[in-house]
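Researcher: Here's a chain I'd like modeled. Treat it as a single chain, no partners, no ligands.
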Amino acid sequence: MTQVARQFGAVVAGSVVIATGSAVVGLMAFDGSVGWVTLGFALFVLGYALSQRGADSGVPTRPSGDRRAVEVVVRGGLVVGGVVGIAWGVTQFSLTVLDPSLTRAAVAGVSSIGGYIVAHVGVNRDGLGGSFFEPLLDSVRGVGRSPATEEDISRLQWAGFGAGMLLTSASLSSGFIWACGTRCIEDAVVWSPGRQGALIFAAAFAGWWGYLVAHRSVAGNWVDQSAHGPGASATRDGTSDTTTADSLSTVRLLGVVLGLGVLVAGMVVGVFYIRQGDHLLTNVGGVLFLSGYAIAHHLETGLPL
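Model: Modeled as a single isolated chain. Structure tokens:
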């Protein structure tokens, strides 16, 4: 089997696990079950890790000895804390759909994206939020992270990115409405209570593949390589590379904050239209959510994903 086939197979297998975890989240979030939602997101992380095994190439470079053990503990703590933050935020978001509150919607949005950032840094080391955690991670690993660089993206790549993000937005919007179920909608052409689990799984699977297409279009791979993969750090001699931290100027930092603000605003919009079962207007919130994320990610890392 070729390397490309192995990578694609791992991504497909990971997608099934991710969609399963997302279905658990969707089915349990509106019941306020943070424990089950946490389990769902843990499955999501497991599916992502499975996909990532296919994305990595060559033999991973790992630190050894005590430094390796400390890094595992620190990054593992970030992943666990991040998953709990996402689970609590998404559960509160779902409950806010049933009992709308602007303040609680904003808090749920901040908790969700904050948890995601922490968990993502724990898994990948780099990415959105990586600059904030860089001193901690450099101290336990002993090497710097890759510097952020502005990437030239062609029109065709932008088209693939846009198409993938639109699919993700539409899938997320419909998925949340279907997860809300009879509390938000009655029988429709596609929806019925007996199809709820299958519809949520399908929406999650399609939404994740929208993200994968968008990511491959602009980054050249299905998912990010793991932090221990080849090219994971810019320096191998034990010195810290400060290019990334220096490049995150005040203007960029403000842009990242603005992007995250747009993201949270998208979640607030979603709260009010999910309840109405309005797929189109909920999708407006989805577009704001993903656009805000792409803006923040691009300003920090040089790529929108």
